[in-house]
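To illustrate this point, what follows is a protein record of this kind.

___
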Amino acid sequence: MPLAVLDMMDRRPIWAMPPWVPVEIRKALPEHWDLLVIDEETDGSGDGAARVSPRVMDAIPQAEVYFGYGVPAALLDAGRALRWVHSGAAGVGSSLTPSMIGRDIVFTNSAGVHADPMAETVLGMLLYFGRGLDLAVANQRHGAWDTEPYYRAGAPLSELSTSTVGIVGYGGIGRAVARRLASLGARVIALRRTEPRAGDEGLETLVGGASLSSHIELVYGEAGLRSLLERSDAVVLAAPETDQTRGLMGAAELATMKPGAVLVNVARGKILDESALVRALEEGRLRGAGLDVFSSEPLSLESPLWRLPNVLITPHVSAVTRGFWRRETDLMLHNLACCLGNAPHIAWRNVVDKRAGY
C-alpha cells in the first residue's frame, strides 16, 4: 500500500497543525493509499528541525511522499521509494545535502506561503521609520512630550507615496512587498537574479485591477544592484541565502545607499554585513534599520544593534501568522495532485532548484 508521511506537528502553539489538515490530505489521497500522521513535536523554525524521529524512520522505507520541516539526509537515504518530499519551511539550505542533490526526487518548499505576513512586517518597519514612530517610542520611554524632533529642519519624516523602495530579491516575498508598496503609490525598483523569460509577465500582478508595471522597475546583476541602492529611499532584503547572495550587502554596498535611507532585512542574516551596518548607523549615514534576521541567532546580547536607537529588532518572527495553515495545505494539495497525476493541466509549485539553492 503506497504511503504518505505527515510529520508537521510544530511545537510552537501558533504553528500547531490543526486537525483538519490531515483530514483534507486523506480525502485527496486515493483509497488504496495510507497516510501516517506523526504526532511527535517537531520544529519548523529556520530551515526546519530536520530531526530524524524513530517512528518516521520506521515508516519511511515504505513511503512515497514525505511532508516535514526540512529533509535530513538520513531520511532520504532510508526512503528509497520516495518520489516527492516537501518542507513546510521556506529555507532549504540544511536540506540540500549530497543525498538530496544526487537524488532524482521532487523537492518543494513553502517560500511563497510566508510572503503575505512577511510583506506586512516590511511595511510596518518602513512606516516605523518613515512616520517617526521611533521618535514617539523614545518620547514615551522618557515620559517626554517633545515635538522638536518632528518640527526641526531635516526631520526624518517621509511618505511612501513619494518614496522609491528597492527590493533585493523579486521572488514570492519581494513581489508581495512590491504589491503593497505600489498600492500606496511608492515607486519600486526590484532586483532579479536573471532577466524574465517569455511568459513571466504574470510577475506584474494587479492591485485593484490596475497593472503594477507603471510602479515597478526590474533591474538585474551587479549594475542593477548599484542602481537600486543609489536611487532608493529604502532598501528591502528579500533574497534567499545562497553562495551568490551570502555577504551581498557589505560595506561598499551600504556606502552606495542614499544618505538617510532605511534598510530592512527579512531574508537571511548572512546576506548582510552586520558590522558594516553598525558603522553606517552609528555615523548617521542611514536613517535606520529594521532587522528580523541575523547572522547568528539568537542575536548576542553583546551586539551593538541592541543599543542603537535607530534599529528595530524582531526575533525572526516576520512570517508568523494564523493564516499559515490554509495556504500551506492548499500548496500541499496542489502538489499532491501533480504527484498523483490527477491534474496533468497544472504545474508543480515551489519546486526547489537544487543546484541554485532555492
About this structure: The CA atoms of residues 84 and 339 lie 7 Å apart.
